[in-house]
Amino acid sequence: MTNLELKNKLLDIVNNYKTIYGMGTWGWVVTQSAIDRKVKESSWWTSSKVKTISKVIDKGYFMFDCVGLIKGILWGWNGSNKIYGGAGYACNGVPDVNTEGMLAKCKNVSTNFSNIEIGEYLWMSGHCGIYIGDGLAVECTPIWKNGVQITAVANIGKKSGYNSRTWTKHGKLPYITYEKEEVEEVKQYKIIVDKIPVYTNSSNAKNNKSSVGTWSKGTYYIFNEAYGMINITKTKGQAGAWINPADNVIKEVEPPKEEVEEKPIETPTEEVKPPIIEETPKEDEDNIEKEPVIEDKPDETINNTPNEETNGNGQDNEEIGQELEETTKENIFVKIIKIIIDFIIGIFKR
Known about the structure:
Layout: H1 3-16, E1 18-21, E2 26-29, H2 32-41, H3 47-54, E3 61-64, H4 66-74, H5 99-105, E4 107-110, E5 121-124, E6 127-133, E7 136-141, E8 147-153, E9 164-165, E10 169-172, E11 188-198, H6 202-206, E12 213-226, E13 229-233, E14 241-243, H7 317-349
Parallel strand pairs: 1-3, 8-9
Antiparallel strand pairs: 2-3, 4-10, 5-6, 5-10, 6-7, 7-8, 11-12, 12-13, 13-14
């Protein structure tokens, strides 16, 4: 068996079989007779543990312990309904040893985890697992999920979504052929909505039927695609959950429309201005042409300034001025005559 085949077998068990931890087992089918047998063989099988495991009797569960998971696969476990799930015992050149005994069989044991390869044996006192790459391991433990599960190798770094364990040593199993894994580019898919419904199969995802929960926004690996639906996962090569890409769209929310109060349309009215009455400017009394006043004073001369404008009778001002001048001379002459007559009369009266 190659290290890559070992990895795939472990992932198959994680993803497709129901498991529970049972000390001293290597993939046994959970039955009452199997439990009774183990109670007689090990003190680990206390009444509380028996009670827990008995709840899954005849429900398709298989029992493993940590090193039993590795031995069971190497002994030919295939998930059948036989007592050991199809596995033999101490076969295929692999002895029945505990965790420390398996470490003693390993080659190139090291405490430096920077150069660890897929399929290497992971060890800490009383416990073991297998490294599957990308900083992850598969182990069977009674804590957390109480069965076969994927965990993060804390020596390399913690990973979101996984429980972490710090191991002490790692080494290469002598029963495995180690080869380099061809790195296949794995497509990724980004969830942009806060919560997206997930489904157990592509048909339900396509019809948005029977959602089994929601996954948060983030970047996931694509495990499979069918009918336009996508199976996304947090772990490369491991089946996840189906989604409908149509659900991964941020819908624009239209802002509420403001209610605009309708005002009556006002008809513009023209401003009525009073008529402009042009006032005739009052003429300056000094500018009004007055009729010449003829006084009975011999020493006063009336000065008439000729004007080119015509009067109401069609005579121009020059003609009028000439008439006035002649009239004035006659009046003076009459006055002089009158004075002379009055003077003569006055002499005779004396």
